[in-house]
Design goal:
- Two copies of one chain form a homodimer.
- Helix content of chain A is 33%, strand content 21%.
- The first copy, chain A, is of the alpha+beta class.
- The first copy, chain A, has two domains: 289 residues, Aminopeptidase (3-Layer(aba) Sandwich); 119 residues, Alpha-Beta Plaits, CATH 3.30.70.
- In chain A, the strands form five sheets. Chain A has a six-stranded mixed beta sheet with strand order 1-2-6-3-7-17, with helices on both faces.
- In chain A, helix 1 packs antiparallel against helix 3, helix 1 crosses helix 12 and helix 4 runs parallel beside helix 11.
- Chain A is globular.
- The model of chain A has no long low-confidence stretch (mean pLDDT 94).
- The interface between A and B is large, with 104 and 105 residues.
Chain lengths: 468, 468
């Protein structure tokens, strides 16, 4: 076996090809949230499917949905009693506005060098193409280092195309293909780590539901001199409604919003408190100078374990150069709610609609449109064997202890857990400053390589752990 | 004198030329609020200057300002003791967004026929090019009907180019040309009448100041999953500030906002109450279903005699198709305040800035930019001889009684009154449904002709009234 490389050597040897191919994939602007990019998302799926065939997956299929396609790939183990793993990620990306704030064009991937190694700048570099793609390098390294011709686990990849649009068709897709997706554990690669120095794995994610509020007052824009002060101004009323969404303590005021919320235990709060948290670093990543949120919780508790209401966009009236003194006809806002264990997105949608019905005054016609059914929150039990296997695999890859975190963002993990009836664990290597959903998204290439290493170790570990 | 036509016949004979030339002028998109149209405003001034020369004014000049130019024209009377009149109007127009709501292109003037005569559709048809332009027909009719070769008054026209931008350079322009603008009365043609059946003249106008509020929270857009709930969201904070601008009774909450306000007298409230006011018609003109405003005042009192705060536009965050779950970096709003006698725009600007300083929370960087010094409010004393002359001239033109109103909109009338030290009266014929500042602005041609008739009578009347 002297000609069998270590996992690390195998990953290192494959790094150049890995980066070159990832760059090619990142050139495809697979923005699922903008209908104009629908063909790009389809092209992204076909590109990935072909790449997975070239990697060696014997079965690769593009799965159509009523919306945008997912990619499924399967590489069975030669071992009859091998456990089965589904790896989840997504190939669609966030929009890129405001484009003028990007230092490198979002779909012309650019490599720069840093003291800790190369960095790749592109939309999707971290969220989530880079983290999906390290699995191609990971499985090759796993085979090379073990001398196997098939993985030690039955390896299935499911790479969604609508994650950044709230995964509206994902639960149905899972249900449709439930038999082919049957597995012992789901490994999600769509999250980050605490920091470069403190690798970590995630134990829970927030859910999410979002939508658009439309207000109409006057049937058309009217002169603020002739009519101002004597009719409802939809912008003022929208402001009032959005202002009323939180009380002075930062609690969301929607009736019943906190019903059933799984509160943090003292143990979890203590566990969070052991992390090397530095508020000034967190603020730097948040591009902010001041922390602010729900009274009675720390910053980490607020973003990991508390539900929120956020305004993502507002527009209405005259917004061009100079001024135009009107009472405008319309006001619009995009709002999103992050949810935690115990909350259901459809229930929150109904409660917010009821709250609007009670809050919007006479004289304003309103409509609330939700972007799909939303995403349910997810919690992974501490101590689960698969979670411990991920912890070991990452510790071997990073040569250091691995801690536990949660993730404030949202993905279809709860659907995976519920529909596939399997535990969900997280193998993600992105950093807090990678710029997810923002201009200037980037990823650290050395960390993607560590992700590939960890995956290579994980398949060997799970083959033992889950068989035992 | 049997070959001397009546004023009415002279106006009728000149109507076709009048409409054809007005259409030509309205084709020039003289939007002063948008820097891209600055050359169009200059072209509009040159067009008007040439037309006034063709009309017969011996002196016509384009007056430059640090911004956009005004037009000045002078036609001295042959009578040595003739009183002097300055007619005020403006040749700039409002922006035209949202363009898709216009039934006829705003700068392709379109004539349609109605049971009460032709109607002209164009931006500026009523506000204010149509009402400036009826003075060309008026002075010709005045000369034809009186057989004079010069007007019975020393007639001066001052037609501004920045009225829709808050007249930032107008007071300075008046001061600079104070000697040449010396007069006994100012006639403003930039207002409307109660209705087609109830002609009226205005006794006061609201003042105005407006500007833009800019909020910045995070240094860039950030992921609402990773950071939401733990930093200030500038859209939420902007909503809170704008919501706090009024209390539950519709009073403006800016400290000291009502200091010095000239309250309505019982007599004025009774006078307003004699007008044939129908709330459902008013609401139809306001394109609204429900009246709403400051507690304790009628709709007319609210729009004519009460100061207001209005939000004219808001924008920030993601406003494109689909969704993008961010905490945005920026929020912006355009706000305007309508002011009444006793309030000063610069004082209100300072008070609102102070209020913002007390209201905007830590974590939000903010700036308040005002669009110039604002416009002061104006009130004309009932019973003034010039006001009575306007009333008689309009009554003769319209063959009916003329009532008194106020105007909720704003113009530089207070500057005219204060700098020129002359009383201001109003000769305007626009209707409440003419769509000022809104899509689908139009004007009724028969009413513009009545305006020309009234002007022709007014010069003869003032020559006697003000000499007496």
């Amino acid at each position: 076996m002297s000609d069998t490389p270590s996992v690390r050597d195998a990953v290192t040897n494959g790094a150049d090809r890995f980066v070159a191919e990832l760059v090619e994939w990142l050139r495809i602007p697979s923005i699922s949230g903008d209908p104009e990019n629908a063909d790009d998302v389809r092209r992204s799926a076909e590109w990935l499917a072909q790449n997975l065939r070239d990697t060696g997956f014997p079965t690769v299929e593009v799965w159509q949905t009523p919306g945008l396609p997912a990619v499924f790939a399967e590489w069975p183990s030669d071992d009859d009693d091998a456990p089965t793993v589904v790896v989840y990620g997504h190939h669609d990306v966030q929009p890129v506005t405001p484009l003028e704030l990007w230092e490198h064009p979002p779909f012309e991937p650019t490599l720069t060098s840093t003291p800790t190694g190369p960095r790749l700048h592109a939309r999707g570099a971290a969220d989530d193409k880079g983290q999906v793609f390290f699995h191609t390098l990971g499985v090759r390294a796993h085979l090379e280092a073990t001398g196997r011709s098939s993985p030690a686990v039955n390896l299935k990849l499911l790479v969604e195309g609508e994650e950044e649009s709230g995964s509206p068709n994902f639960a149905a897709l899972l249900a449709e293909h439930r038999d082919r997706l049957r597995c012992d554990v789901v490994v999600v690669s769509d999250t980050g780590m605490w920091s470069r120095e403190t690798p970590s794995t995630c134990t829970g994610m927030r859910g999410m539901t979002d939508g658009q509020i439309d207000f109409r007052g006057p049937g058309g824009d009217i002169h603020s001199g002739s009519f101002g002060g004597a009719v409802r101004n939809p912008l003022t009323e929208m402001s009032r409604v959005l202002a009323a969404l939180h009380d002075d303590d930062g609690h969301v005021t929607v009736d019943g919003f906190y019903d059933g919320v799984v509160e943090l235990t003292d143990t979890e709060r203590a566990l969070f408190a052991t992390l090397p948290y530095d508020e000034s670093s967190w603020l730097a990543n948040a591009k902010s100078t001041t922390a602010y949120g729900e009274t009675g919780f720390t910053t980490l508790e607020r973003v990991w374990a508390r539900p929120t209401a956020e305004v993502n966009g507002i527009w209405g009236g005259y917004t061009g150069a100079g001024h135009k003194t009107i009472v405008p006809s319309e006001a619009h806002a995009k709002v999103s709610f992050r949810l935690v264990a115990g909350q259901d997105p459809l229930d929150i949608q109904a409660k917010f609609r009821d709250w609007l019905a009670r809050t919007v005054p006479e004289g304003i016609d309103w409509a609330m449109h939700y972007y799909g059914p939303g995403v349910r929150p997810c919690l992974t039990p501490l101590g689960h064997p698969a979670l411990e296997a991920v912890t070991r695999a990452m510790a071997t890859a990073f040569d250091t202890e691995v801690l536990y975190t949660r993730e404030g963002g949202s993905g279809p993990e709860a659907d995976l857990q519920d529909v596939l009836e399997a535990p969900v664990v997280f193998l993600g290597v992105s950093l807090p400053d990678d710029g997810w959903h923002a201009p200037n998204e980037k990823v650290e290439i050395p960390l993607l390589l560590k992700g590939a290493e960890a995956a290579a170790h994980l398949w060997s570990d799970l083959a033992i752990t889950l068989r035992a």
